[in-house]
Amino acid sequence: MPNLAAPKPRVLLARRIFPDIAARMAEAFDLDYADDDQPLSPEALRQRLQGKLGLLASGTEQITAELLDACPELRVISLMTVGHNNVDLAACSARGVRVSNAPDVLTETTADFGFALMMAAARRISESEHYLRRGDWKQWRVDLFAGADIHGTTLGILGMGRIGQAIARRGALGFGMKVIYHNRSRLAPEQEAPIGARWVSKEALLREADHLVIVVPYTPASHHLVAEQDLALMKPSATLTNIARGGVVDDVALARALQQGRLAAAGLDVFEREPQVHPDLLACANVVLTPHIASASVPTRRAMCELAERNLLAAFSGRPMPSLLNSF
Ligand code: DGY
């Protein structure tokens, strides 16, 4: 029987979410709702967190050791994103602050989008649409926007976690692609076999892939994992798709490779200084650019918010959090 007299936990909901989910949270918690699409500034976040026990945040709010020290009552941080590079997890663990993210619920949707972005880059869909809208289309031409094939080519996946494997399945089973991947750890043989996936070195991946899709988490170790010298190994006919995080790819080096014809095309959903996009990338016709929306289907974005809500509810009712990140 819930103790109706007990005060509700004080929680900050730091980003605008779906109204019905926010309304439900307002019943369960003593909720301070930052009902805005504009992220709180670091100072506003610090102020609004005073006295709060819980925080529901996105991948944008920077959770640093300094912020935690300034908000000593904070016990639980629940992210609505799977990526958690905005949170200093070690600092949270050291202070006993539990942190959860939103894995699994976005895997298939994000893989759909990664595949779509790869196909759009290879088949020059954005570039040709802009041409048509500008009124430049005067006649059919045998090589008009002739791009690269997807079926039967080699799909290279950098980062073979849940989303990487979901992309590999699409490539192997739907498009007859040969799948190679590079990851710190190899998949078990029974995971590799159904999709014919083969682990290769990073160098071999870059050299052999016709279409490279990047899905590694962003950490200090993966900063500029794909830089000038890596791009130089790729086939000039290849495409590169990044749905991981800005910073994994050196955007300036990528723009140079695209401009100089050392890479055929790219599909980018994430950027080093997003929401700013490097002007050299904006100037490239052969890149498809999207505003960090790989997981943005309505059901999936709702599921991400609901998982974040469930994590908070579990934490404050003494149950295990479904996707706790700390290993205390
Ligand atoms: C995630 O969940 O990490 C997606 O990139 C959305 O930010």
Automatic annotation (TrEMBL):
This is D-glycerate dehydrogenase. The lineage of its organism: Bacteria, Pseudomonadati, Pseudomonadota, Betaproteobacteria, Burkholderiales. GO terms for cellular component: cytosol. Gene3D superfamilies: NAD(P)-binding Rossmann-like Domain. GO terms for molecular function: glyoxylate reductase (NADPH) activity; hydroxypyruvate reductase [NAD(P)H] activity; NAD binding. CDD domains: GDH. It comes from Kinneretia aquatilis. Residues 115-294 form the D-isomer specific 2-hydroxyacid dehydrogenase NAD-binding domain. Belongs to the D-isomer specific 2-hydroxyacid dehydrogenase family. The keyword Oxidoreductase applies. PROSITE patterns: D_2_HYDROXYACID_DH_1. PANTHER family: 2-HYDROXYACID DEHYDROGENASE-RELATED, GLYOXYLATE_HYDROXYPYRUVATE REDUCTASE B. Keywords: NAD, Oxidoreductase. Residues 12-326 form the D-isomer specific 2-hydroxyacid dehydrogenase catalytic domain.
